[in-house]
Amino acid sequence: MWNFPLFPDQASSNAARVDALFLFELAVILFFTTAICAAVLILVIRFRRGRMVDRSGPPLHAPWLEVTWIVIPLILSLIMFVWSAEVFYRLYSPPPDAAEISVVGKQWMWYLQHPEGRSEINELHVPLGRPVKLMMTSQDVIHSFYVPAFRVKQDVLPGRYTSLWFQPTKAGTYHLFCAEYCGTSHSEMVGSVTVMEPAEYESWLAAGGAGPSQADEGERLFVQHHCAGCHRGSQVVNAPRLEGVFGKPVPIQDGKQVKFVTADERYLRDSILMPRSEVVAGYEPVMPSYQGQIGEPDLLKILAYIKSLAAKETGTGR
Length: 318
Ligand code: HEC
Ligand SMILES: [Cu+2]
Hints:
318 residues; alpha+beta; Immunoglobulin-like; Cytochrome Bc1 Complex, Chain D, domain 2; 2 domains; binds heme C
């Protein structure tokens, strides 16, 4: 009966940091709310009408009081600013070795794809202790990926990628919510995140069948959509090779000038859906747009393939 938890489990490496900041701010708010309410009540009672108290010569200036009410809140808000900026920075800087899982939100479910190939719906299995980064997008409206036990929440937007990371520190099953009203069955857009011991996780992955990895699936789609026909050294079309492109600066023709753009997920996505928006310098704008032809999950697979090419040093002229 007394099991009435005020907080969800602290199940990620950043959960305790978020809670400490929250409790500090709560304490500051409670202190000032109590002090101000008490002062109001005392003054109201003491100076109520008809009460015989000395009302002559009220103090109009009290420099020390004014300095106090400026300096103390200034110090407190600066502490909150520096502290929360530090926590915010941590929450949005995934470690470089984080495993990357793709997430697609759609009315009204979550589709999750592991790099090893296994995919899930409304359930996410992750290994204990290893950082995980989510690459998220939506197939329709705005959703929001929210795991209270990890103290993470991030909007999931159509037409772009947002990311989120966490490092689970406690095995168990935790709630996953959509935290952005997304239509009739928004309240049913719920799921769970299961944190497993690494060995258990490996066997869970293997139990999914030894299917192709996400990057291999991406390569299959790369051939199926005829990308390979142009991008693998075609004799007919002059198209850039994609080995090593991910993460590198790419020269883009901008009117008469050339500007450099980093080939991140945003760039690759736009290159495929809106090839005319950024044309690589030295090439003709002949690539067709794939807008409406490749679904979000497939697009993420193709991106995984292009990124995997970055890992392989093939030395093809970049
Ligand atoms: C008709 C030939 C052709 C086809 C088919 C084609 N592309 Fe392209 N692609 C190009 C050309 C030419 C460019 C360079 C000019 C530009 O940026 O539009 C390019 C540019 C790109 C870039 C930017 C490369 C860089 O170096 O910055 C990416 C990424 C890309 N294509 C991916 C794809 C994918 C994925 C597919 C299949 C879904 C595909 N392309 C299909 C011709 C093609
Ligand atoms: Cu939703």
